[in-house]
Amino acid sequence: MRIITTVIALLMAVTHINAQGNMKANVDFNVWPKGELNTAYAKYFIGNSYLAPLDAENGGPVNVTFEPRCRNNWHIHHKSVQVLVCVAGCGWYVEEGREPVVLRPGVVVAIPAEVKHWHGAAKDSWMQHITYMTKVEEGASNEWLEPVADADYDKLPASNALLCVTDADYMQRFEAFAFGEVVEQVKSRLDDHTRYVCYLATLLGCQGIDEYRELLPQALDKGVSAVEVKEIVYQATAYLGMGRVRPFLTAMNEILAARGIALPLASQQTTTMETRREAGTEAQVSCFGEGMRDFWQSGPEDSRHINLWLADNCFGDYYTRTGLGQKTASQGNSAQHPMAMRELITFCFLAAQGGCESQLKGHIAGNFHVGNDKDLLIAVLSSNLPFIGYPRTLNALNCIRSVTSEQ
């Protein structure tokens, strides 16, 4: 057998893919060491790889870690058999003239001598495999060949896209609904750019990290800038907390880096610690009206500090940043409010996480105040429905109806 696919109970127990995870979290370097940067063979790899010998003194197996998109060149092992044991993440083994093989934890591949092949990580996932040589004959050698072309590599699906193989009819129906029927319904109000901005904010709100990793590259292709991507995640901190935002920060940075986008990006900050409260209050007034002018010093004494934090932290630290929403979210509307996109993504955060209808109503009113009308919010909510489900969609729709009736 050239390729042996098996589940190794011990490996599966200690090298699972983190269900919450991102492209780093699916490789736990405390279980299988990452090792040192593979400088000795770097010229035979696209991207960074790392080597961790597991029994160096005796020439034993080596754990190899591949960052997303990293793969080695085509190569041939002469007079020896290479064995790969995938222990974490997701990647590919590709043998010339044969169908690609998905490397998941527990998959074992025995590569015969004299066979041209390559192996590496999926485009959106780290991958680790243990490798060792067996059936080594005298005169054994390794012949390195040409790099794997980007055009050929990019034909392979991302790790999440493998659902289109394992769950073909389900995914076909979901995509026909989410990216066909739904998009057709909302296209008169939402351009692709705004739709994908709202997708990203919504996936943060509902904690859809895997789907976020799937859609972020598409958002970049639709013209959402790296700065906008950053600003969406940053602003989510005020509404979701760092505990829920941190995985998205990591995934976002991995995807941007894999695209060759140099980090850090230019700062979009406009305030100092001394000016943030006053600037935050101005942002609140801009979104909700003059009634917010003295809000920061209102409320019961024991919780007045939270109203202050809403002004200096929530609005002063995030809404005052540039880089997001300098154009109105609504197509065809020439009246551009600087807070239109920021209020729209806040609507997405709150509608998607559910359980905060009071705050959602407040920000629906804020959206109306900055020019995002009822029809636009319903279009955004409709567009996001496939990712948050019907209950949260209907709850948010009731909130829109309630605020509209009150006004």
Question: Features of this protein?
Answer:
407 residues, AhpD-like, seven-stranded antiparallel beta sheet, 14 strands, three-stranded antiparallel beta sheet, alpha+beta, disordered N terminus, 44% helix, Jelly Rolls, 15% strand
Walk me through this protein's architecture.
The chain contains 14 helices and 14 strands. The model is unreliable at 1-25 and 326-335 (pLDDT under 50). By secondary structure, it is α+β, with helices and mostly antiparallel strands. The chain has helices at residues 9-14, 150-153, 163-166, 168-186, 192-205, 209-221, 226-240, 242-258, 276-288, 304-319, 340-353, 357-369, 374-388, 390-406, and strands spanning 3-5, 36-37, 45-46, 49-53, 62-66, 71-72, 75-78, 81-89, 91-95, 101-103, 107-111, 117-121, 127-134, 141-144. 44% of the residues lie in helices and 15% in strands. A hairpin with an 8-residue loop joins strand 4 (49-53) and strand 5. The protein is elongated. It has 2 domains: 3-160, Jelly Rolls (Sandwich), CATH 2.60.120; 177-268 and 321-406, AhpD-like (Up-down Bundle), CATH 1.20.1290.10. It starts with a strand and ends with a helix. It has a 7-stranded antiparallel sheet. Helix 4 (168-186) packs antiparallel against helix 13 (374-388), helix 5 packs across helix 13 and helix 11 runs antiparallel to helix 12 (357-369).
